[in-house]
Amino acid sequence: MKEEEKAYYHWLAQAVGVGNKRFLRALTEFGTPQEIFTQALSGKLADRLSERFREKAALLSETSRLFDVQGEYERLTARGIRFVMQEEDAYPGRLFQIPDRPWVLYYAGTLPSKHAPAVALIGARDCTEYGRYMAGQFGAAFARAGVQVISGMARGIDGIGQGSALREGGYSMGVLGCGVDVCYPRENRELYEALLAGGGVCSEYPPGVEPRAMLFPPRNRIISGLADAVMVIEAREKSGTLITVDMALEQGRDVYALPGRATDPLSGGCNRLIRQGAGLVSSPEELLEELSCAAGGVGSGRKARAGGVKAAAVQTKLVFLEGPAGELWEILDFNPLPTQELQRRYEEKFGKTITLPVLFQELLELCAGGYARQVGGGYFMRVMKT
Questions:
Q1: Is the peptide bond before 338 cis (omega within 30 degrees of 0)?
Q2: In this structure, what are the phi and psi dihedrals at residue 292, rounded to the nearest 5 degrees?
Q3: Which pLDDT score is estimated for 195?
Q4: What is the dihedral of CA 216, 221, 224, 225, to 10 degrees?
Q5: pTM
């Protein structure tokens, strides 16, 4: 597609705006965006549309007079923002498999590879320390195995998994519920910049569109649509994460979930998904093995896709500590435990004694290193090292 044509596509996407897909479909009956622009500029467009769209057509005509088509497109590309249409070879192939695929996809950075496997790593925003740790493990293991990580750049599981993948040198795509030039949430600015440098961000909404609640559910279909499978780390019984799961199932994607304790509210959604038939996965290695079992790689509906998983690159742990500190880290839990209980577990697991002063000193060193956290006077818990 020529750059001049793309400039008019950008005008049309900006002019029609968010939530006007029926109007867009009605307009496309008149030909190319350039032809629509000419009709709008002449004021004849409203007369050729049905009565329900005439008011919008009048606004479109006004917009065409004020919009510098080539200038706006040049300013867009100068900011490092591109977009891809369904008619172009660069359009993500996985999106052709889903209903209601985006008409235009704006992006900054790079788009996911069509030839490498991809998994949507999603979960709760207000996650537990256990969820944080597991999201980090999955994100890093995917990166080492050559699996692209797709998510929504949200606070919590999404951002943790994506950040972990990028730190391991992998690829991640953040699908936004706003324009690609808007960092949301603002607290993820560092992740946003890292995605631009080592992955990408994309959106069906034009640049400048601010985040609104109504825009996030539709973007979830793109998260699952860009992936071959969906992995849920933590989710409540009723959560936005499950909207993505529902869309993934409609798209024929496999869904996997991390089990949790029956008493943990943030495991309720995952446990229910498993009861309903989602794949139970308790480690990255299990999921990568599951995905490799599809003949030659990850697949939609467990059908093979080109690429495959480099399972040999997977390591079993993200934390490597030697001596008593490493042994203590193994027995720490994501729920706080008293030092007396940790002493009992240590002696039972390793068959040797450890005094409380030595135990306490080693625990404090783990805390200083970011591997543990002290809660209250004598309680300690495992944390994800960031």
A1: no
A2: -70, -25
A3: 98
A4: -140
A5: 0.82
